[in-house]
Amino acid sequence: TIIVLRREEDFFIKTKTIDLGVEILGMCWRPGTNELCADCSDWQTRLCLLEHSQEKQMEVTASREKEGLPTVFTRIKTTAPSVPAVPDKVFQRSSWSGDGLFLAAAGSRQNEEDGAALFQAKKDEAMGILETDSNGHVLFGKQTFFSAGSNNRVNVAQFCPKMHYWHGPAYLLALGCQSGDVFLWNARLEQPVAKLHLKEAVCDIAWA
Fold this sequence. Notes:
The chain is mainly beta. The chain is built from 1 helix and 16 strands. The strands form 5 sheets. The chain has a 4-stranded antiparallel sheet, with no helix packed on it. Strands 7-8-9-12 form a 4-stranded antiparallel sheet, with no helix packed on it. Strand 10 and strand 11 (129-130) form a beta hairpin. It is globular, with a radius of gyration of 17 Å.
């Protein structure tokens, strides 16, 4: 369940609850919007618009399904049995790039390898804006997978808030793993930049 709070002076007031029907492992906002990404224990990444009432939210979801537009984005997962390094139902943090172009979903798996799924939003290059549907949801097109190796669950994905440039915008993305590995990726070029190793599991990451 997602609980939305509004701050008034020294108090927080509950304004809404959204029941997704599954356990939520982590959440992140699309910068500058009311669109929320929720990573769930059923290997689904759900997007929710929070400016509507709960009744309106249900209407929006039904409308998008009728139009054939994506309401739920599935994280990549393995099709063969495997034993993960840690239980799937643990905290994880996904991340949206500062301009909303990329969404990195931690805790993903493909072909027995752990990593992060990367969703790239559709962008109107002529207008320089992200494409959205009639309900305001950003539309995603390309999807890729950044591997961290086998039995190396990615607990956290975090985009650098400062833009760096290397043959264009780099979109630096850090992935923190249960093994203590930290991978740094250029998300736009889909290339690894660096790798660090810490003695303990990486549970969260924040950029200075």
